[in-house]
Records
---
Amino acid sequence: MTPERRTQEGVASVETLLEALPYIRQFHGRTVVIKYGGAAMREEDLRVGLNPVVVHGGGPDITTYMERLGMEVRFHEGLRVSDPETVEVAKMVLLGKVNSDIVNRINRHGQPAVGLSGDDGSMFTVKPVANADQVGNVGEIERVDVDVLNHIAADYIPVVASAAADVDGNSYNVNADAAAGKVAAALRAHKAIFLTDVPGWLETPDDPSSLISRATVDEVERALGDVAGGMRPKLAAIVEAIRGGVGSAQIIDGSRPHSLLLELFTDAGIGTMVTP
Ligand code: ADP
Ligand code: MG
C-alpha cells in the first residue's frame, strides 16, 4: 500500500472508531507514554481504558514568551540553545503555563490529572548533554526514578514537563522527546507515541507523501545521522525507548482529528511505526 493511500484510509470516521472497540480490552492496564507537544496540543481524546503517562515540551510557547521578552531564540540540531536565562523562562512557561493548561484540559475532559516536572520526587537525574558547549544548559537524563510516577498513575494521569535540575540545583532544558523515551523505557511501557505536526517520519522532510510507515529500530539507528531538525531527537528517543524494552513506538500527526484514538484502537496504520 502506498503511503498516500494509507493516509487517506486513516481519515477519522465513526466506522473507524467502532472497529476500535474490541481492542480496548486488549490494551487495558497497559502503560502507554504519550509525548505531546507543539502543534499536537489540539488533540483532546486522550484515553480510553489505558494507563497513559503524558510527557510534554513547550516549544512554540517558550519561543513566544522569549520573543515577548526580547530574547534571542536559536536551535542547534533540533535542540534549543539554552543559556541560564533561557532555561529560567523555559521552565516558567513549561510549568506555569503549558503543564497547567494540559492538566486543566484533561481534568475538564473528566480524567483527573496531576502535573509534575523532573524535579518532583527527584524523578529525573540530569547531566549536561555531550555538546553542551554548543547548546548550553541542555540536560540529558541519566536516570528516571519512576516511583513518584507509579504512585500518581495509580489514581491520576501523570503529566510530566520535561525540565529538571542537577544535584547542585542548576536547571536544565530537557528535550521532551528524549524525556518521553527515557520515561517510557523506565516504565517498560507497552508503547511510546510521539504526537507531532507532520504525518510521521518522512523520507523527504517537506514531502508529506514520502511517509515511512514502518521501520525497525536498527533501520532507524542507521538513518539517524542523516535526519535533521526536530525529527532527530524524536527518532533518537525512539531508539532509546525500544532498546530499553518498550514494545513499539509510533510517530503520528497529533493535529489530525482523533489521530490518537485511531492509532491506539484501529488498524488504520497511521504515521510511522517503529518495532524492535
Ligand atoms: P514537536 O517536537 O513538537 O513534535 P518539532 O518541530 O520538534 O515538533 O519536530 C517536528 C518537525 O521535524 C517537523 O515539523 C519537521 O519540520 C521536522 N523534520 C525534520 N526532518 C524531518 C523528517 N525527515 N520527517 C519529518 N519531519 C522532519
Ligand atoms: Mg521537538
Note: Confidence is low (pLDDT under 50) at residues 1-26, 39-48.
---
Amino acid sequence: MSWSKAMPANPVVAVAGATGAVGQEMLKVLEQRKFPAKAIKPLASKRSAGNRIPFGDDELLVEEMTPESFEGVDIALFSAGASVSKEYREAVVNAGAVMIDNSSAFRVEKDVPLVVPEVNAHDLEWHSGVISNPNCSTIQMVVALKPLNDIAHVDRVVVSTYQATSGGGMKAMNELYHQTRDYLDGNELTIEAFQHQIAFNCIPHIDVFHEDLYTKEEWKMVVETTKIFGDDNIKVAPTCVRVPVLRCHAESLNVELAAPVSLEQARAAFEAAEGVTLMDDPFDNVYPMPGLLAHTDDVYVGRLREDPTVENGLAFWIVADQIRKGAALNAVQIAEALLP
Ligand code: A2P
C-alpha cells in the first residue's frame, strides 16, 4: 500500500531529536536551504523541553516529544535513536505525517524505501509513510559508486572506512575532546562512548559483532548498498574503523567493474555527478581530508588510480561530512523530493 496523502507546498516539519548532533544539523540544513516549511517543531526528551535553539535570526522552543506532538505535522525528521523511532512510528503515521528516519530501525523492511536522492529518488514513489535514511558510511559510498555503475556494472567493492566520532553523536565527539586533553595532561581516561580509548587510537569495531565475525556496521554497508541500487549483484567487502576525527568519514575503495573504465572516463563521470566533487591533484598534495572538509555537502573523491591487481579495477579515496551528507542533509534532500 503506498501513501495517498498529498504533501502541501509548505509543510509543517517536526525534528525529533532536535538537540542532538544530527538534529541540530537538520535544523541548520532546513534553514540554509530555505526549506519552505510553514512551521518547524523541534522535539526532544523531557530534559530539553523549554530550551531555545537558534534558527536563522530567530529561536525555536524545544518541546517534549509525545505521541500527540505529530498532530498537524506533515514531515517528521527523526534522529533520536532506533528505539525511539520504533516507539513513535505508529503515532507519526497515524497523524498523517511522513517519517524520514535516520536510525537503523526500519532500513531493511520491505515496504520502507532506503533513499539517497542522487541514486534512487524513484524509490520515494512507493513509500507508505516511512522512509529510511541509510547508514552514513553507505550514503557516501553509493553516491561515489553511482557514476561508475552508470558506465559499467560495479561487481565488487572492497572498502575500509575511517569513521569520525560524530557517528556516535554529541557524547562521542565530547569523549574525543576530553580523552585527548586527559591523555596530554597525564590524567586517567574516561571510556564511555566506545569500547576502547579513541584518543590517539583506531578501533576496528563499530556496533556489535555478528556470528560471521563482521560487525553490524559492516553488514549494513552490504545490505543497504544492494537495496539502494536494487541490485543483489553488487558485492561489498567492508572493514569499518573508528578513528580519532571529529567530523567527516573517509573511505578507501577498491572497485571491480564489469567492463574497463579508463581513468579519464572515471574522472569525467565524477566531475559530472550530482553531489560529487573531484579533488584529485596528488602531485600538488591535493586530495580530500576529513580535517578540512567538515560542514561541506558533497562527497569528495581523490587518489583516483587503477587497481592493476584485478581486471577492470579502480581505487580511490572518498570523504564526506557524516553529519551533513551522511545524515541531516540526506534527510532534508528526501523531504525536498517529497514537495509537490
Ligand atoms: P535530549 O537532548 O533531550 O536527550 P545524540 O545522537 O547527539 O546523542 O542526540 C540524541 C537526540 O535524541 C537528542 O536530541 C535527545 O534529546 C533525543 N532523545 C533521546 N531519547 C529521547 C526520547 N526518549 N524522547 C525524545 N527525544 C529523545
Note: The radius of gyration is 20 Å.
